[in-house]
């Protein structure tokens, strides 16, 4: 089976509690509508869309932080759509996630070493300290940072800790949800280079969620464009930038500031 | 990459130990020693009455007797000795009632705030109903039913004040529960209860410590109030609240009977509240 992920007719709706009547259940909002795609092993898939397009929801359904209301999510051929936490636990090591805001995703009262070690210990790895050191080396952080608290790091360093925590488990898949949007441009470039290197070195499959097409273009081999919870375009990156098919994709492309306004993407 | 060399000073920030912490811990330390050593350091028997020695002023005033440092009350009992012995009851109530209240209230608040669902519904409704009772009347009623005594005082404080912890900790746990590190723990495969204890608890702990020391101060005050209205332990045993009640009746003839226990009570309650703040400033790894 070449596809690591296979998503078929995925639907996800959440209750709209603001419109909940006094009695009875709240009306549901459709967040994802009939989303289908396949993610082959080793590919870097970009997921773009404006805010509210459902890209983070799609990501969270893939790593089963959310349970889909319809359709199927297959991971490595196994149906994980409706598995409960207990059944997911052994699979969790294989798909990991890096979050947008490391200030929120790194426990502020745990030291960096502890943050990276906790998932390793949970999955019963034997040589936890060695793996923590290795993970820090991988993301280019000095080993003594293990003794620091997240607030003692810079933004880029914090995001490296997030990456270290994810790769320490040696997963097959990593979901990166807007991981550079909180960083300045030079830290963005460093983190993207790092991630690209790790994908090659560790043979990872990556889904990279972003609202920024220029970041996607730099990193991804294939792009999904989401608009209001549905896929409007699914194309190889080069094709998408050369000849966008959907109107919404053209809008997104037009929104990229060009170094030279007269020059076109080519 | 200079920023990764580890010499950027972010981990070199050290906070000095605040005056707050030293002063409050110092006073409470003195008080603990006084309570433990009362039989050896008290100059007089705290229960010994001698009507010929009634209303003696403190030792630096005219008409004082040596050996009665802070004067005597209307029954001739030594004020300093009674304060020292009174510290025993005050501290036992503060520590036992404070810790029990904290343990029960914080556990319920943590579960309600993090686990949500029906657990939250049950606990939150209980808090709402509980808080509709007027606390002072509630405690007087409780002690009237159970009879005065140390256990009754402690139980009354726990039964009334657990909501204080539960409400604050619940709100804090809810705020922490929305953080991504909780989702991250789920991605790592950690269970809900384990996440609550290893991820949420360390972040709520500073708040709990501040509340705990505040509660210890409150427990001292509650004990004093109950002594004041004669619902604490037996009237013979020295308590600060009892002394204040007695001193009130003779404030014009013998101010020292009222003022010294009152100042002691004030400093103790203040120290407890400052201790919490000081501990948080000193030991919480996250600068706020």
Please sum up the structure shown.
The complex is a heterodimer of chains A (266) and B (288). Chain A contains ten helices and ten strands. With 266 residues, chain A is α/β, with parallel strands linked by helices.
List keywords for this structure.
heterodimer, A: 266 residues, alpha/beta, Rossmann fold, 2 domains, six-stranded mixed sheet, four-stranded antiparallel sheet, 10 helices, 10 strands, globular, B: 288 residues, mainly alpha, MetI-like fold, elongated, disordered N terminus
Question: Describe it for me?
Answer:
The complex is a heterodimer of chains A (266) and B (288). Chain A is globular. Chain A folds into 2 domains: 1-17 and 27-93 and 173-179 and 193-258, P-loop containing nucleotide triphosphate hydrolases (Rossmann fold, 3-Layer(aba) Sandwich); 95-170, no CATH class. Chain A is α/β, with parallel strands linked by helices and 266 residues long. In chain A, strands 6-7-8-3-9-10 form a 6-stranded mixed β-sheet, with helices on both faces. In chain A, helix 4 (112-122) runs parallel beside helix 6 (155-168), helix 5 (128-138) crosses helix 6 (155-168) and helix 6 (155-168) packs parallel to helix 7 (185-202). The two termini of chain A are 35 Å apart. Chain A is 36% helix and 25% strand. Chain A is built from 10 helices and 10 strands. Chain B has one domain (18-283): Orthogonal Bundle (MetI-like fold), CATH 1.10.3720. Chain B is 69% helix and 0% strand. Chain B contains 9 helices and no strands. Chain B has helices at residues 19-41, 79-115, 117-131, 135-146, 150-177, 180-187, 192-228, 240-249, 255-283. Chain B is elongated, with a radius of gyration of 23 Å. The chains are: A alpha/beta (266), B mainly alpha (288). Chain A binds chain B through residues 63, 65, 85, 88-90, 92-93, 95-97, 99-101, 104-110, 118-119, 122-123, 140-142, 144-145, 147-149, 151-154, 156-157, 165, 169, 190, and chain B through 1, 3-6, 8, 10-11, 13, 179-181, 183-191, 198-199, 202-203, 205, 284-287.
């Amino acid at each position: 089976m070449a596809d690591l992920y296979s998503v078929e007719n995925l639907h996800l709706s959440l209750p709209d509690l603001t419109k909940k009547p006094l009695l009875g259940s709240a009306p549901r909002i459709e967040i994802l509508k009939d989303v289908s795609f396949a993610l082959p092993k080793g590919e870097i898939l970009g997921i773009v869309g404006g805010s509210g397009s459902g890209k983070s929801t799609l990501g969270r359904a893939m790593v089963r932080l959310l349970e889909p209301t319809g359709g199927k999510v297959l991971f490595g051929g196994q149906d994980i759509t409706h598995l409960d936490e207990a059944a997911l636990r052994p699979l969790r090591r294989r798909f990991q996630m890096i979050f947008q805001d490391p200030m929120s995703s790194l426990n502020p009262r745990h030291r960096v070493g502890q943050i990276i070690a906790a998932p390793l210990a949970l999955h019963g790895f034997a040589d936890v300290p060695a793996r923590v050191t290795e993970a820090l080396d991988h993301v280019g952080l000095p080993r003594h940072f293990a003794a620091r608290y997240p607030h003692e790091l810079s933004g880029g360093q914090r995001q490296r800790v997030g990456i270290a925590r994810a790769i320490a488990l040696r997963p097959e898949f990593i979901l990166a949800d807007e991981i550079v949007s909180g960083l300045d441009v030079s830290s963005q470039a460093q983190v993207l280079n790092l991630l690209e290197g790790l994908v090659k070195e560790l043979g990872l499959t990556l889904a990279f969620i972003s609202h920024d097409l220029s970041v996607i273009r730099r990193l991804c081999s294939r792009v999904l464009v989401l608009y209001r919870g549905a896929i409007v375009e699914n194309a190889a990156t080069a094709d998408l930038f050369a000849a966008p098919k959907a109107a919404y994709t053209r809008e997104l492309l037009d929104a990229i500031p060009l170094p030279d306004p007269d020059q076109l993407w080519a | 990459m200079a920023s990764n060399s580890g010499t950027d000073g972010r981990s070199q920030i050290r906070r000095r130990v605040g005056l707050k912490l030293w002063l409050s811990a110092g006073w409470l330390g003195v008080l603990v020693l006084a309570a433990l050593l009362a039989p050896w350091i008290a100059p007089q028997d705290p229960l010994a009455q001698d009507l010929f020695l009634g209303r003696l002023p403190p030792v630096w005033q005219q008409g004082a007797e040596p050996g009665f440092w802070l004067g005597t009350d209307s029954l001739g009992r030594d004020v300093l000795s009674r304060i020292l012995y009174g510290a025993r009851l005050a501290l036992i109530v503060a520590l036992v009632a404070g810790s029990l209240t904290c343990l029960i209230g914080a556990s319920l608040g943590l579960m309600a705030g993090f686990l949500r669902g029906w657990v939250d519904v049950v606990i939150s409704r209980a808090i709402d109903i509980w808080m509709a009772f007027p606390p002072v009347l509630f405690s007087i009623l409780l002690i009237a039913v159970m009879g005065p005594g140390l256990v009754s005082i402690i139980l009354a404080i726990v039964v009334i004040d657990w909501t204080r912890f539960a409400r604050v900790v619940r709100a804090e746990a809810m705020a922490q529960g929305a953080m991504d590190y909780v989702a991250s723990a789920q991605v790592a495969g950690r269970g809900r209860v384990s996440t609550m204890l290893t991820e949420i608890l360390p972040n709520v702990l500073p708040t709990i410590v501040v509340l705990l020391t505040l509660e210890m101060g409150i427990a001292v005050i509650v004990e004093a109030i109950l002594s004041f209205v004669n619902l604490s332990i037996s009237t013979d045993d020295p308590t600060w609240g009892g002394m204040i009640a007695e001193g009130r009746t003779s404030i014009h003839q013998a101010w020292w009977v009222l003022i010294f226990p009152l100042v002691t009570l004030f400093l103790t309650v203040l120290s407890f509240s400052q201790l919490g703040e000081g501990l948080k400033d000193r030991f919480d790894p996250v600068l706020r």
